């Protein structure tokens, strides 16, 4: 009887000791399979002869060769460079300016902070749909100006193949700038106030304090914001689908919309998988150096 109770107590103790691992194990296993398992599957498909359906025959780099021979892929890459560059730079500028504004302890700071952060609470589908209405020449901004009597006003970027990608930039900046502002504002509030007071006592002006002391001290936040925004830019899909649909034609295609079109609409599963792996490589090239620098900095501080 005593041996049985001892065994039960030991078993209970072991379960309690490993309870957190037992609880997390199912979700960890599911993530391992549905995320990393499908990454490996996609990687293999990129080296196969797959078209409409998966085929396991090895094709080497043939799908990557076809991918880089497609004009549409080159358009998607050019659009990513334009969209990503303008999106990141504009969000950093607007977010930093808004953070500096709110850092002045102005009235209604809480209300303004909520207003600026609100767009980030919306899905990209909602954002794309709303901006599609606003920029539609037949019922949006152009139509409103015509109703006001400004009949010569023209804003047809949404249906202009040369300007459509810039409408995606406008919508994306509107949604993400508040998030960047929150990052910068948190960093500004963490700056040592004694240094700022000392600068005031030395007669430094407010712009000089910000550009010479405060902003350089929050440099790591700039890096974090750039990494987050670059990641959002590379994987942008739903915003483009809702706003332009990749059009006119494929003028506003991005790699994510290209991958979807090839894999699920054009029966080019191998090419779609190859484009997905190129996106993964781009994201890894952004995130891995950042994580390495963060871990290296943590070890040094430790």
UniProtKB/TrEMBL annotation:
Residue ranges of every copy of the ABC transmembrane type-1 domain listed in the record: 77-292
Record's bilayer topology term: Multi-pass membrane protein
UniProt main location, coarse: membrane
InterPro entries: ABC_transporter_permease, MetI-like, MetI-like_sf
Keyword Phosphoprotein set for record: no
Keyword GTP-binding: no
GO cellular component: plasma membrane
Spans through the membrane: 22-47, 80-102, 114-134, 163-188, 209-234, 269-292
Cell compartments where the protein resides: Cell membrane
PANTHER family listed in its UniProt record: ABC TRANSPORTER PERMEASE PROTEIN (PTHR30193)
Assigned protein family: Belongs to the binding-protein-dependent transport system permease family.
The protein, known as: Sugar ABC transporter permease
